[in-house]
Design brief:
Blueprint: H1 2-21, H2 23-48
Helix pairs in contact: 1-2
Region (Disordered): 55-77
Keywords: Membrane, Transmembrane, Transmembrane helix
Transmembrane segments: 24-45
Length: 77
């Protein structure tokens, strides 16, 4: 039965040693792995806390429902 868990123990020992000898590489890989996982895990957690996404920002200015009046009195001449 111990031979079944031996690869996991070796991986743990390797990660433990790498964290002490090369911490920059270890934490860079750790953050690189956590990033994609967070894109799947975080949205359901936010919704469970009651987060409501904000309304979409309008992409154009709304035009009034009336005829346009010509502008007068702003001539530069």
């Amino acid at each position: 039965m111990t031979s079944l868990f031996r690869p996991f123990q070796r991986s743990y020992n390797y990660l433990y040693r790498t964290a002490h000898e090369k911490p920059v590489m270890f934490y860079s890989v750790l953050l690189g792995v956590i990033g994609p996982v967070m894109t799947v895990v975080i949205p359901p957690i936010r919704q469970s806390f009651g987060y409501v996404p904000p309304p979409a920002i309008p992409s154009s200015y709304p035009l009034p429902n009336r005829p346009r009046r010509p502008i007068s009195g702003y001539e530069d001449e």
